[in-house]
Amino acid sequence: MKLYFDPVTVNCRKVLAGLDLIGAAYDEEKVDYFGGAHTGPEYTAINPNQSLPALIDDGFTVWESNAILQYAADKLGNDAVYPKDLKTRTNVNRWLLWESNQWFPTCYIWLVQNVVKPILGDKPDEKILADATPTFNKLAAIIDSTVATQAWLCGQDVTIADIAVAAPMHLHPWQKLPLEGYPNLVSWMSRVEALPSWKKTDPVPLLGLS
């Protein structure tokens, strides 16, 4: 397998940590996101969406970060982090879809306003953050209640769902996500951050954050 990625992006960090959790080996091809390499003709031929990451395995191309994790887990037969039991797998898939459709777009607002804009020399728009806060609170409460009585999103064992849902808030100290009032979510995130696969894919040094 060959992975095309930039380690500083949310979805690339997700896949890097997820592939490590799965135990998947792959060849690396770095694509400079801030340099716009993902919009060039060479990468566009691989992923017409011009988004990162993408995976090629024996001529078969997979884009969409969650699909990459599903594919890799099935390819390696890692049933521990992507169980085959119908209800458990459906629960994992549900979280993967929820993350991409609702959680990522919401957390991304804080990432853009409080991380990307300052990196580019711009200032956050507080009105945008204020307008997005009710939606964030609704979604954060879903996670908080889910992990109130269990260690991980899908039970007592970590799965690729935990990596996927944690990824959009992977820079939460710098994103300044409004996590007050969600102690179970914060504790769950701390468990994710303690995973070796999460620690070794930390993009903070690459972004120059302190």
Give a written overview of the molecule.
With 210 residues, the protein is an alpha+beta fold. 54% of the residues lie in helices and 8% in strands. α1 links the parallel β1 and β2. α1 packs parallel to α3, α1 runs antiparallel to α6 and α4 packs parallel to α6. The chain starts with a strand and ends with a helix. The model has no long low-confidence stretch (mean pLDDT 97).
SSE map:
Layout: E1 2-5, H1 10-22, E2 27-30, H2 41-44, E3 54-57, E4 60-63, H3 65-76, H4 86-119, H5 126-146, H6 160-166, H7 172-175, H8 183-193, H9 196-199, H10 204-207
Helix pairs in contact: 1-3, 1-6, 4-5, 4-6, 5-8
Provide a quick synopsis of the model.
With about 210 residues, the protein is of the alpha+beta class.
Properties at a glance:
54% helix; 2 domains; 4 strands; 210 residues; Glutaredoxin; Glutathione S-transferase Yfyf (Class Pi), Chain A, domain 2; alpha+beta; 4-stranded mixed β-sheet; single chain
Biggest sheet descriptor? 4 strands, mixed
Q: Report the span from N to C terminus.
A: 34 Å
| Structural domain count | 2
What quaternary form is this? single chain
Give the overall form: globular
Please report the number of helical segments: 10
CA gyration radius, whole angstroms? 17 Å
Percentage of residues in DSSP E strands: 5-15%
By CATH reckoning, the class of the largest domain would read Mainly Alpha
Widest sheet: strand ordering: 2-1-3-4
User: Total strand count, please?
Assistant: 4
CATH architecture of the largest domain: Up-down Bundle
